[in-house]
């Protein structure tokens, strides 16, 4: 089923993101995590695509998830390291496998400090990829957005202009980069609406589960500001891994409840291929149904 249809016809849309494992053991762990999360009846599950050869790997996994687990998949699809002909090759296979949903992305630069360089005969930006997909295929295609601006954007206004370009090029929904302060999401949505971006904007949430994640989330790659009180609370517990995990889960649960009560169309969970944190958060949300309080 297409995600734009789910967003129109269902209550909040909950989704889980996984990444392609490197090993057979990793793949078994992944399928165990997805199986454990399946009881929460996600609207869809997505599989990321890393640089290099994983374009086909992502395709194989989304096909397996749908066939073996009966879940609706979404394939992440970047334009990094590929010519337009190569992009068409995999898009054609996704279409032939009956995949409905694709998240179109540029892809990260090869290193955190490096610049993204388009492949010869390839594309430079996700908006070009979105235009290519919508002109040639019938996928429901989404794009990424950044409540705290993308690290390469020259200003928040420029970032918003590029986001609008994604929607004008065919994105029928957007999923945000992870964030920890809901004001960033609500402000971004308000600015997006004023700029004429009218598609659903699904917040992407990743709980802190280890103290060492704080620096990583605040790095250029994620650009997520961690509120001072949360940062301090994590630091105070850094020698107690279980307490950090409980704090991270509790924070994200409060965050999601406020987002859903404030009108967010669902939540996309970055799971890191693990089930316990996402399971705890979504179980509480499904019991409390904070979206019923949305005004
Ligand atoms: P773009 O839209 O191309 O934007 C990149 C930068 O260029 C931005 O600063 C933008 O403002 C600017 N820009 C855009 N268009 C133009 C233009 N026409 N002219 C000038 N500047 C422009 N990465 C992966 O490698 N694999 C994944 O599976 C993956 N999944 C993700 C899922 C989500 C929900 C999110 C939020 C990110 C994901 N990423 C993934 C990371 C993403 O690839 C990076 O954030 C990347 O640096 C930017 O991707 P984009 O699609 O937003 O790029």
Q: Can you describe what's shown?
A:
- The chain is of the alpha/beta class and 295 residues long.
- The chain has one domain (3-289): TIM Barrel.
- Helices cover 46% and strands 14% of the residues.
- The chain has 11 helices and 8 strands.
- The protein has helices spanning 3-9, 24-38, 54-69, 84-96, 126-136, 156-168, 182-194, 213-218, 228-236, 241-261, 276-288, and strands spanning 13-18, 44-47, 73-78, 101-105, 140-145, 174-178, 201-205, 266-270.
- The protein has an 8-stranded parallel barrel, surrounded by 5 helices.
- α7 links the parallel β6 (174-178) and β7.
- α10 packs parallel to α11.
- The protein is globular.
- The two termini are 28 Å apart.
- 42% of the residues are buried.
- The model has no long low-confidence stretch (mean pLDDT 95).
Summarize the structure.
The protein is α/β, with parallel strands linked by helices and 295 residues long. Helices cover 46% and strands 14% of the residues.
